[in-house]
Write a structure and sequence with these properties.
- By secondary structure, this protein is α+β, with helices and mostly antiparallel strands.
- It has one domain: Aminopeptidase, CATH 3.40.630.30.
- The protein is 34% helix and 29% strand.
- Strands 1-2-3-4-5-7-6 form a seven-stranded mixed sheet, with helices on both faces.
- α5 packs across α6.
- The radius of gyration is 17 Å and the shape is globular.
- The relative contact order is 0.14.
- This is GNAT family N-acetyltransferase.
- Pfam families: Acetyltransf_3.
- It comes from Ruania alkalisoli.
- One of its GO terms (cellular component) is cytoplasm.
């Protein structure tokens, strides 16, 4: 990787990988792009957590006409990162893939914003992994992509995710009725956000200072 490729808002997900490894190796958490070689571990993790994740994951009211293979999914995520429209990272804890954090809907122009979503395996939930991963992803948005606003939307019933945004100090902005289609119906979500000028040195630093 060239020195030039590591600098500025145009930096892709691949330079982020190097920074995360350097900063968070002592915390036993690493964020990195999903790779084709992750297929067996990633799919097994998803199968084991199907019931745990189903109440919170978005679905589509339209009949499925296309279901991408894992290879296609990885390729689509890499293309989005190259285009600067989205970034998907696996959470690797003690060398094991345990979840994923995704930066989606990156908007430039006068908005300069993105939305963060995440999921984690039930067997490691509650260990502080998700707040740290979300903090890292949000800091990436502000300090590497140069974005102004980061938003997270959560089902009112999802107590675990509500604890994540509370721990990180996200500001609640209100209820979005029927915001996403989940499990056959349009589900309400509570909306949370932070702007760049509200986070000081960043959320990872805020967590370290606790």
């Amino acid at each position: 990787m060239s020195r030039r490729s590591r600098q500025g808002p145009s930096c892709t997900a691949w330079c982020w990988r190097a920074e995360v490894e350097l900063e968070l190796v002592a915390r036993e958490l690493r964020l990195r792009p999903l790779r084709r070689a992750d297929r067996r571990a990633w799919e097994a993790l998803r199968r084991r957590n199907a019931a745990w994740l189903a109440p919170w994951e978005a679905t589509s009211p339209e009949p499925a006409t296309y279901r991408p293979t894992f290879r296609q999914y990885v390729r689509d995520q890499a293309r989005a990162a190259k285009e600067g429209s989205g970034y998907a990272f696996v959470m690797e804890y003690r060398g094991e893939i345990v979840g994923q954090v995704t930066i989606a809907g990156v908007v430039r122009g006068s908005l300069q914003a993105a939305t963060i979503g995440y999921w984690i395996s039930e067997h490691v939930a509650g260990r502080g992994i998700t707040p740290l991963a979300v903090a890292m992803a949000a800091d990436f948005c502000w300090f590497r992509l140069g974005l102004h606003r980061v938003e997270i939307n959560i089902r009112p019933e999802n107590a675990a995710s509500l604890r994540v945004v509370a721990k990180l100090g996200f500001r609640e902005e209100g209820l979005r009725p029927g915001y996403l289609h989940i499990q056959g119906r349009w589900a309400d979500h509570r909306s949370f956000a932070l702007n760049r000028d509200e986070v000081g040195e960043g959320l990872a630093a805020r967590l370290r200072g606790r």
